[in-house]
Design a protein that fits this description.
Blueprint: H1 4-11, E1 38-41, E2 44-47, H2 49-71, E3 82-87, E4 91-93, E5 97-106, E6 112-126, E7 136-146, E8 151-160, E9 167-178, E10 185-197, E11 200-205, E12 209-211, E13 215-224, E14 230-238, E15 243-249, E16 259-265, E17 270-279, E18 286-297, E19 302-316, E20 320-326, E21 333-334, E22 339-348, E23 354-355, E24 358-364, E25 368-375, E26 379-381, E27 386-389, E28 399-400, E29 405-414, E30 428-436, E31 451-459, E32 463-470, E33 490-500, E34 505-513, E35 518-525, E36 531-534, E37 539-547, E38 558-566, E39 578-580, E40 583-589, E41 595-600, E42 603-604
Parallel strand pairs: 4-10, 12-19, 21-31
Antiparallel strand pairs: 1-2, 3-5, 5-8, 6-7, 6-8, 6-9, 9-10, 11-13, 13-17, 14-16, 14-18, 15-17, 18-19, 20-22, 22-29, 23-28, 24-27, 24-30, 25-29, 26-27, 30-31, 32-33, 33-38, 34-37, 34-40, 35-38, 36-37, 39-42, 40-41
Length: 622
């Protein structure tokens, strides 16, 4: 092959020629390309040598790693070398003292350092030492070092409560550090058991089906199954959503309406709680009543039960159903001065016709303006404050066929002035409707087929903000020429007043802003008012906070004042510039949880609320 120098001379030599390439240019020559793992020669697969070398090295490393894990570093301690077992009774009696034995065995060849055993008790357990009505959940015990081949046994005790048939579980976790290792390991075990017996039993005497809105009377029964007196018993009933308790005999605790103190229960003694209430919900909806009898836990305000029981009932539509909508809504919140239109929906769900039915709605609440009451095809009874529809005024009630639906209508206004003090009852309107037949329905003699419903409307408060601007007779002294003159500053006092009618308000905030040509003088009355001014935006915020019911009506309005300054420019001559923009306020009604708001207009230098301002002082002069 020619040297590079000779090739260079030939390259620049006149009329010099070169022969064709010996090898055709290709991106990759056959058999000489990049890394090819497999190639096919004479119908057989042939692997690259280096691939087999790499595969062999990986297998060796895996085997060495496994050997190292099994026989090597103590940091890679085998958890199979530690055994944790729990032993105890598989069936117990509720309220008895129960013991569990936890056995820890070190089956390995290395010591277990800093071993700690954590035992988790079952739900509704009480400690053996101390007050029995206190609950415990777990206990932690330090075991120290556990040598190879050594076993450690720990006993845990507790009183266990629960209803008959309840499944319970305890568990234990051993935390340890193998000798020579820095990592902490854990090994655990669990043990299941059940409550087979109880010293006292509780049950319901309750129908499997209940009619929506109908009053129901039922009982919660309890009885002793013990050979000795059970001291200081309590019974708790958890009612489902939609259930309204009307009465109970005997009465429940004053501070806990669903807990009864039963006292001591002697052997073979029984007792009952008689209850009356109304349950509401949807057709075919399931409701669950729960009862528990046992020891009262004041910390949790609940029962640790010797026994517990529950019963599911299914709701059915009333035989005669009645529902109320206020302005088309099943739930409604009103406001002072509001007009409410009511639709009373009636339906006969019986398989028989109903004759001479009647509907009565009793209206109560100081917020109702009875002078505004309007009734269609019904009559108002002043003495009972009730509206009555019957077959003489409402013809469809003469005969109601099965599945027939009707609609009664009435309306009234809410009083515009509902001023109440903070300690007065909150304004609420209550409607109680009763829909019943005029005579017994064939096939349902002796059955109460009447339907009823209660409808409650809360009245929100009324929040109002008033903005005034003053120059004369102000709590902050003002200076400057009147009428305002170009190049000279005149100050004004802005007064914000808040009024709140019937319910306490929280988080009340008042906001406004100043035009760019106005100045905030940072003079505020009272001085401790939570007021701020943002110079870049001109926004003024007063965080008034809580405003009590009756403010501005039964007690003085809540007020805050601040001073602003006007330095008129030439282009404002002959005009009445705005000194503060519109004011807005908002706050949350603590009774209805509604957000209330109010607004007042902007104010110019004409000062409509300052009677001492003359006509000649209402425009900027030169």
């Amino acid at each position: 092959m020619a040297s590079l120098e000779e090739l260079k001379k030939r390259l620049y030599k006149e009329k010099e020629t070169f022969g064709e390439r010996m090898v055709k240019p290709e991106l990759a020559r056959p058999g000489k390309g990049g890394a090819v793992f497999w190639s096919e020669q004479n119908g057989k697969i042939k692997g690259s040598r280096w691939f087999f070398w790499a595969l062999g090295i990986c297998l060796v490393l895996i085997v060495l790693g496994a050997l190292f894990f099994v026989f090597g570093s103590p940091a890679l301690f085998r958890s199979q070398a530690v055994d944790v077992k729990i032993e105890g009774l598989t069936e117990i009696k509720s309220g008895d003292k129960i013991s569990w034995q936890v056995k820890v065995t070190n089956k390995g060849n290395a010591a277990l350092g800093d071993a700690v055993l954590v035992f988790k008790f079952p739900k509704d357990s009480a400690p053996v030492a101390g007050r029995k009505q206190e609950k415990i959940s777990r206990e932690r015990r330090a075991l120290g070092d556990v040598r190879p081949g050594e076993s450690v046994i720990e006993i845990f005790n507790a009183f266990v409560f629960g209803g008959k048939g309840a499944e319970k579980e305890v568990s234990a976790v051993l935390e340890y550090r193998p000798a020579g290792a820095s990592a902490v390991f854990a090994e655990g075990a669990s043990f299941q058991f059940s409550i087979a017996r109880s010293p006292v039993a509780v049950s319901f005497n309750l129908p499997q089906e209940l009619r929506i809105g109908q009053e129901v009377e039922f009982e919660a029964n309890y009885s002793s199954q013990a050979d000795e007196t059970i001291p200081n018993l309590f019974l708790q009933i958890n009612f489902p959503d939609g259930f309204e308790l009307i009465s109970a005999n005997p009465n429940s605790l004053s501070q806990n309406k669903n807990i009864w103190a039963l006292g001591d229960l002697s052997p073979s003694r029984t007792g009952k709680i008689k209850l009356k209430g109304v349950v509401r919900g949807a057709d075919l909806e399931s409701k669950i009543f729960k009862a528990a009898v046992g020891i009262f836990d004041p910390a949790e305000n609940s029962i640790m039960p010797y026994d517990a029981s529950s019963q599911t009932v299914v709701l059915r539509s009333p035989f005669l159903s009645v529902n109320i909508l206020a302005n088309g809504l099943a739930e409604y919140t009103t406001f002072p001065g509001d007009t409410i239109s009511f639709d009373v929906l009636l339906k006969n769900n019986l398989p028989q016709e109903v004759k001479n039915a009647s509907l009565e709605i009793i209206i109560s609440g100081s917020a109702v303006d009875f002078n505004s009451l309007r009734v269609e095809r019904g009559a108002f009874r002043e003495s009972s404050k009730s509206i009555v529809w019957n077959s003489s005024t409402f013809e469809p009630l003469r005969i109601l066929l099965p599945n027939q639906e009707e609609n009664a209508v009435f309306s009234f206004k809410v009083k515009n002035n509902l001023a109440l003090s903070a300690d007065s009852p909150r304004p609420t309107i209550r409607l109680n409707a009763i829909f019943k037949p005029g005579s017994a329905v064939h096939g349902f003699e002796g059955v109460d087929v009447a339907g009823s419903v209660n409808y409650e409307i809360k009245a929100s408060s009324k929040l109002q903000v008033i903005t005034r601007a003053l120059f004369y007779n102000s709590i902050i002294q003002n200076v400057g020429p009147l009428p305002p003159k170009v190049g000279e500053e005149t100050t004004y006092t802005i007064v914000w007043s808040l009024a709140n009618m019937v319910n306490d308000l929280d988080g009340v905030v008042v906001k406004s802003s100043l035009p760019p040509y106005m100045n905030f003088k940072n003079v505020i009355q009272p001085a401790d008012a939570d007021m701020s001014f943002d110079k870049s935006s001109g926004e003024i915020i007063w965080r008034a906070g809580r405003v009590l019911a009756g403010t501005g009506f039964l007690r003085p309005a809540l007020q805050a004042a601040f001073q602003v300054g006007l330095l008129p420019s030439q282009n404002q001559v002959g005009s009445s510039p705005v000194i503060i923009n519109a004011t807005e306020t908002s706050g949350r009604d603590t009774f209805t949880n509604q957000t209330l708001s109010s607004r007042d207009d902007q104010i110019t230098i004409e000062l409509p609320d300052d009677p001492n301002i003359t006509f000649n002082q209402k425009k900027v002069v030169q």
